[in-house]
Amino acid sequence: MALTDLTERLYDLRRDRSSGYEKPYKPALLLSLIDLVEKGEFSGNRILLTDELIGRYRDYIQVVGGPEDTARIQYPFWHLCGDGIWTILDSNSQPLYRPGENANKAPSVTGLRASMSHAELDEELFNYLQRSVERAVLRNAIISRYFPSQRSLIEVMSSEFLHRQPRAAEAPARYESDPARSQAFAKTIKQVYDFRCAACGIRVRFRDLALVDACHLIPFSESYNDHPTNGIALCKNHHWAMDRHLIAPTLLESDLVWHSSPLLDDRIDGQRPLVQLQGKKLLLPREKKFYPSSEAIAWRAERLASA
């Protein structure tokens, strides 16, 4: 499996959204695991439910969790099996997690420790985690997708844990042009917007190709934010226009609408379609939790080209 494919899988972890937001448990556990791998706590492809892993997971939940989120590690540890991240094996090397039988019945921590031998990572994920460069790419992808607003805190927390200088200053050089991260973001945004331009509505798919681009509202070079609420799907023309601040999504009362730059002239054929976007509602994802964030909308609105 290519690093790009693995990154896409990490961008699409199945998570509980019943509270109106994506729960942080699975990505927090993966970040905990990566920290422990980097520190040399695990040897070979044998992940144990150690006190160190539980403690590290609790540290992450304190930083990225909401007021109602609890640090019960057994749930993400169990359900990551369903994402193909690892397999929990018993003493006979048989899987404990069996879809269709017990997938929805996570044991307690005590029950897991008593019944499991160890968890075995997907072989290719394990191999990537053994190499520092790929490990850093996967770690950054998880932060960019799930915890962009807590990046600074996570970097400080991780640096203290690993007894080294924070890596935040390295982020632009290392991650801005990372193809695995970029392709995972693109796939997520296109799917969320059903491969449709949020401005003109054009939707063309041919085999695995789509006409739309996945665009950052706040550029990744400034935000390091790959969360879907910092993205929008646009056709090539409207992507070009937004990047040059000729159009921008804005909030009008309770609606998200397009605003056109006053520099545009509707008497000019090439500019008329952009002017006609003025006041038109954005074509948004079906799920409200993926709507553009207020911060991203404000960033674009403030930079709309004016006379």
Description:
The protein starts with a helix and ends in a 5-residue tail after the last helix. Strand 7 (247-252) and strand 8 form a beta hairpin. It has a two-stranded antiparallel ribbon. A two-stranded antiparallel sheet has the order 3-4. Strands 5-6 form a two-stranded antiparallel sheet. It has two domains: 3-175, no CATH class; 189-302, no CATH class. Helices cover 42% and strands 10% of the residues. The chain has 14 helices and eight strands. The longest helix is centred in the N-terminal third of the chain and has 15 residues, at 25-39. It is mostly helical and 307 residues long. The protein has helices at 3-11, 25-39, 51-64, 74-79, 109-115, 123-129, 132-146, 151-162, 171-175, 179-192, 220-223, 236-243, 272-275, 294-302; strands at residues 86-89, 118-121, 205-206, 209-210, 213-216, 231-234, 247-252, 255-260.
